[in-house]
Design a protein that fits this description.
This protein is mainly alpha-helical. The protein has 12 helices and no strands. The chain starts with a helix and ends with a helix.
Length: 342
């Protein structure tokens, strides 16, 4: 029963993440770089800090978190910086492919590589911990099935690109560009996988006595701080390049924009808050604990495609294309539960 609860919590977090781009559509009179960094303050600083504070056991200080080895702390932040690059290109993948297909390809790549890269890179620095033992046959099969589901959805996207006229493509996704979008989505997925690598390096960064469900929240904060730095440099560069600093002085829209940026940030962070809580219920299954990140990304893809259907990004596609899309979604759902049956 605890495993089902853990998976449901992760699923709720995935649904929230897949919904985080909806509030952004309500932001007024700000350029992309302005609203992106403001929502990032909430998504990558404010809410992760609150989560990390929640992990501190009674009678302890938040600063005790930094008693962990400095190498682990800095490596966690470093991979957060790399993940930040993935976050930037992630937005571009959706610009060229839409919410459904863009998230599917990027998150699918992130799911597979993120799960495998963590133990592999950790083994380079700490071979005595034997982190590769977590990559069991069941884990690798789970990753393979997830990638199969992503590939099927990718086929549906290719069928969509081939069957629609340029006008229909633009009606569904304004800047639709399948070749460029695929390349950017793959890069975004590879770099985004560094998030889980950061969590692997930071998995021992918590105060003794922390409840299992809160143990990854301090590492999550360190990763998102690194990602914030990358995004801040790029967004402020874009503010300078595009002369959009004036966005921040538009007092008439600050109230509205702040609310929707905060909501977008909260929804985005919910995925990793849910991941931490969910893993606390999966401790009886080492396989699912290792696969939790992959499961989260797979469910993100499922829900992003649900939003894609709602937003009519697949409008005009043939019934065959929709059937392939639904098949891919079903495979992804199965991939979340299959390892437990092996």
């Amino acid at each position: 029963m605890e495993i089902i609860i853990g998976l449901l919590i992760i699923a709720i977090g995935a649904f929230c993440q897949s919904s985080c781009y909806v509030p952004i559509n309500k932001i007024k009179d700000w350029s992309w770089e302005s609203y992106w960094i403001v929502q990032g303050v909430f998504a990558w600083l404010v809410f992760p800090l609150l989560g990390a504070l929640l992990s501190v056991p009674a009678g302890h200080s938040f600063m005790e978190i930094f008693n962990a080895p400095s190498f682990n702390i800095w490596m966690t932040v470093f991979f957060g910086v790399l993940w930040g690059v993935g976050g930037l290109t992630f937005g571009l993948s959706m610009r060229y492919l839409g919410v459904a297909l863009g998230q599917s390809i990027a998150l699918g790549t992130c799911a597979g590589l993120g799960t495998i890269m963590g133990p592999v890179l950790l083994n380079i620095f700490f071979p005595e911990l034997n982190p590769l033992q977590s990559l069991t046959a069941a884990v690798l099969i789970g990753v393979a099935v997830t990638l199969l589901g992503i590939a099927i959805i990718g086929v549906a996207g290719s069928m969509k690109a081939a069957s629609l006229s340029e006008e229909e493509k633009k009606a569904a996704v304004k800047d639709f560009n399948f070749p460029n979008g695929i390349a950017i989505a793959l890069l975004a997925g590879f770099m985004s996988g560094c998030f889980n690598v950061g969590l692997e390096f930071g998995k021992e960064i918590f105060i003794p006595g922390t409840q299992d469900m809160f143990k990854t929240l301090p590492a999550t904060l360190l990763v998102t701080v690194g990602g914030f730095l990358t995004n801040a440099v790029y967004c402020f560069y874009q503010n300078q390049k595009n002369n959009t600093w004036a966005d921040y002085s538009k007092g008439s829209v600050w109230g509205n924009n702040l609310v929707f940026c905060a909501l977008a940030g909260a929804l985005w962070y919910s995925q990793f808050f849910g991941l931490s809580l969910g893993k606390g219920f999966l401790t009886s299954s080492p396989t699912l604990t290792t696969l939790a990140f992959c499961i989260l990304m797979a469910l993100n893809v499922v829900f992003s495609n649900v939003w894609g259907i709602i937003l009519k990004e697949w409008k005009g596609c043939s019934s065959k294309t929709i059937a392939v899309l639904i098949t891919g979604i079903i495979v992804l759902i199965v991939s979340s539960f299959l390892p437990q049956l092996l």
